[in-house]
Amino acid sequence: MPSRAAQQQAERPTGQAMLRGMRGQCPSCGSGRLFRGYLTVRDRCPSCDEALHHQRADDGPAYLTILLVSHLGAPLLLACYIAWRPTAMTMILCFGLGAIVLSLLLLPRIKGAMVGLQWARRMHGFGIEPDPATT
To answer: Which Pfam families does the UniProt record give (predicted)?
Structure first.
């Protein structure tokens, strides 16, 4: 029979935690809000009191956002130009605005998914249980 520590190690499904984070929910309980602001992660979940201050998303979400937006935008830009031949100013305005809006929509979702991944994989201190003697 596996020990309690081994059972706790297997209790964090990565996909579920990433989906919860992507929806802006706590990766642990799924009911508390993950973000305090647009991209500011709360120190603790208001529902389950899970410590979230361990997250180290840093520049990863921004890089992934740029990667996704550019890989979606470039083929679409070419297809629109070939199909309709719009003016250069129309292309700049439409695709510039589209890239900004898509980036603003994707960035918090990608950051939430990255925090969920870190929580599920017990990265950066998420798996460390607090010492009962110090609390």
So the answer is: DUF983 (PF06170)
User: So what's the pLDDT on residue 18?
Assistant: 97
Could you read off the pLDDT of 13-51 as tens digits, one per residue? 999 999 999 999 999 999 999 999 999 999 999 999 999
Supply the pTM of this predicted model: 0.85
According to the model, what pLDDT value does residue 133 have?
47
How far from each other are the two terminal CA atoms of the chain, in whole angstroms?
Answer: 30
SS3 28: coil
Where do the domains of the chain lie?
Answer: 14-120
Element (H, E) at 15: helix 14-22
On the CB side of 87, CA atoms within 13 Å amount to: 3
DSSP state of 135: -
Q: Does residue 22 sit in helix, strand or coil?
A: helix
CB contact set of 69 (below 8 Å; sequence gap of 6+): 99, 102, 103, 106
